[in-house]
């Protein structure tokens, strides 16, 4: 009996010890960062890495995930997991990856490191949505994303997009948008952790799921020659009214006399509504003339405030006494200066050329100008009374108006040196491409004035302003035309602009006040009635302020 009681007591003590000190689960040992020395895994690092990489490539549920194998001194192998930030997909990827790691590494595997969640699916959704909106990405199809097994130049793991493109330049556009815009938007920060977006296709680009596939070169199609492509683009731009104020600069890389590659730099208006259409049209033109699909188009076009300059000219020339009668209705790029002659080529291998391949007018000290500077002529088209007026206009554009606009325009490229110029044509043809010398037409001015008056009386002030402006340009000496323009600006609530013109017309010294002349007063008598009398009163007040009358 005593021995029996002793055995029972000993057994109870052993069970109590087991309950108090439970055995540590195998999973907990596997997930721990610290492991006993005798539990070191006997796993080949390269074999584990290769097995996991192959599994991820073959398993669609693991696309956009990664398992990073790390060798730690005295600890063995550690695996850091990268999974999708989507909770449902990410949890499934995490489960599958852990199962595969244990399967390939065996029971003695050491530990899992930190898990990184990245919004890969969110990026794919963003690409699909934005590609449908952006005409530059028409035809882009991105099916999925995988992590690239090879590191990039910075040693960071790359996220590779898999799909197809329509042309070569879409590759750079997509890469730039992903890295600089879409990834920061979905991730909340630029390039989360050590991940970069890499849309580079594999070297062969033969198709399949490994990278973005670019259409192959057309069999038998030779790359276009520099001069031929430049000529084709120039003609197409000149024929298309929507491309006025844009340009395509063709540059060739050569080895001796042999053309090695061809690149096109796009120049578009910084006005977003105009510039985006111009960029799309220019890219389409390049692809139309490039049957070989080898010409590289700049990812980001140079943006210049051409439309803003045109508006500035139109405002400043309306009432400037030296520019009365000038009308500029269009601005475009040109390869010729105001004399209509091409400038001679500077004696240097790094000479900058215009968009049509003709070297631009260079100052004597500009022979060392670098290749990254683009110099073009910006040509004015319209009418003027004489050559002197045109020269004054050009000087004001170059020295004052263009620098003011360009410095204020944040989208304006500083790489482009522009000379504002005009081809002066001594004829009266409005179809000519340049500044046409045009004598005042009083009959035309009277007709425009009458159209403006009819619109004013109907309170169509926008139409009347246009008509009064045309009347003043045709007959710049008629002061009543000018004051009706001012009255229309007041009706449109553009008081600052109206006061500016009144101040410019104010007399100085012993000059007669033009507002007080009988011609103007008789014309303004129609400013009466409950609607128009307040306009006349405000005009009168502006005149008094301009001449400092009590």
Helix content: 40-55%
Q: Looking at the chains present, what oligomeric state does this protein adopt?
A: single chain
Please state roughly what percent of the residues sit in beta strands, choosing from under 5%, 5-15%, 15-25%, 25-35%, 35-45% or over 45%.
15-25%
**SS elements, strand count:** 16
Distance N to C terminus: 133 Å
Mean of residue pLDDT values: 76
Per DSSP, the total helix count is: 16
Instruction: Using the CA coordinates, give the radius of gyration.
Output: 37 Å
Shape: elongated
Largest sheet report: 5 strands, mixed
Q: Structural class, from secondary structure content?
A: alpha/beta
Write a structural description:
This protein is α/β, with parallel strands linked by helices and 550 residues long. 42% of the residues lie in helices and 19% in strands. It contains 16 helices and 16 strands. It has helices at 2-20, 26-31, 45-58, 87-105, 120-133, 169-187, 226-239, 272-289, 306-316, 387-408, 442-457, 461-474, 479-491, 495-505, 518-523, 533-546; strands at 66-72, 76-84, 111-118, 141-148, 157-164, 195-198, 212-213, 247-255, 258-269, 296-297, 302-304, 327-334, 374-384, 416-421, 424-425, 435-437. The chain is elongated and about 105 Å long. The model is unreliable at 1-41, 202-209 and 342-371 (pLDDT under 50).
């Amino acid at each position: 009996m005593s021995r029996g009681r002793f055995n029972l007591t000993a057994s109870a003590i052993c069970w109590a010890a087991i309950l108090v000190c439970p055995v540590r689960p195998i999973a907990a040992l596997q997930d721990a960062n610290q492991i006993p020395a005798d539990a070191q895994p006997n796993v080949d690092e390269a074999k584990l890495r290769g097995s996991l990489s192959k599994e991820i490539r073959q398993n669609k549920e693991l696309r956009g995930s990664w398992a990073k194998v790390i060798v730690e001194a005295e600890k063995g192998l550690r695996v850091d997991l990268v999974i999708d930030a989507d909770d449902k997909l990410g949890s499934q990827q995490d489960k599958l990856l852990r199962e595969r790691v244990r399967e390939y590494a065996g029971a003695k595997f050491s530990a899992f490191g930190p898990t990184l969640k990245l919004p890969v699916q969110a990026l794919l959704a963003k690409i699909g949505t934005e590609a449908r909106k952006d005409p530059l990405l028409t035809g882009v199809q991105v099916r999925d994303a995988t992590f690239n097994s090879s590191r990039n130049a910075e040693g960071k793991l790359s996220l590779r997009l898999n799909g197809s493109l329509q042309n070569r330049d879409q590759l750079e556009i997509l890469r730039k948008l992903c890295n600089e815009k879409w990834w920061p938007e979905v991730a909340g920060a630029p390039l989360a952790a050590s991940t970069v977006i890499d849309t580079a296709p594999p070297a062969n680009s033969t198709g399949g799921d490994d990278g973005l596939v670019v259409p192959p070169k057309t069999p038998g199609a030779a790359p276009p020659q520099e001069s031929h492509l430049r000529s084709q683009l120039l003609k197409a731009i000149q024929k298309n009214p929507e491309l006025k104020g844009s340009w395509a600069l063709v540059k060739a890389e050569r080895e001796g006399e042999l053309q090695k590659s061809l690149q096109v730099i796009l120049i578009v208006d910084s006005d977003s509504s105009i510039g985006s259409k111009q960029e799309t049209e220019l890219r389409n033109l390049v692809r139309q003339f490039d049957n070989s699909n080898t010409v590289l188009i700049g990812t980001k076009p140079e943006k210049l405030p051409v439309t803003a300059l045109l508006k500035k000219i139109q405002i400043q020339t309306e009432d400037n006494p030296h520019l009365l009668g000038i009308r500029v209705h269009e601005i475009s790029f040109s390869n010729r200066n105001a004399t209509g002659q091409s400038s001679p080529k500077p004696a240097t291998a790094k000479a900058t050329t215009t968009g049509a391949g003709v070297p631009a007018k260079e100052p004597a000290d500009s022979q060392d100008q670098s290749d990254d500077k683009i110099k073009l002529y910006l040509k004015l088209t319209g009418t003027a009374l004489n050559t002197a007026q045109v020269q004054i206009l050009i000087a004001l554009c170059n020295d004052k108006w263009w620098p003011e606009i360009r410095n204020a325009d944040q989208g304006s490229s500083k790489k482009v040196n522009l000379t504002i110029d005009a081809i002066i044509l001594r004829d009266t043809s409005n179809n000519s491409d340049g500044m046409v010398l045009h004598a005042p037409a009083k009959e035309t001015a009277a007709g425009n004035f009458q159209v403006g008056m009819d619109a004013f009386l109907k309170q169509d002030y926008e139409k009347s302003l246009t008509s009064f402006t045309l009347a003043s340009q045709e007959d710049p000496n008629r002061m009543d035309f000018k004051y009706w323009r001012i009255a229309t600006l007041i009706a449109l609530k553009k008081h600052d602009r109206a006061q500016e013109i009144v101040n410019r017309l104010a007399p100085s010294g012993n000059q007669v006040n033009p507002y007080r002349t009988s011609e103007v007063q008789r014309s303004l008598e129609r400013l009466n009635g409950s609607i128009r009398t307040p306009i006349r009163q405000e005009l009168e007040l502006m005149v008094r302020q301009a001449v400092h009358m009590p």
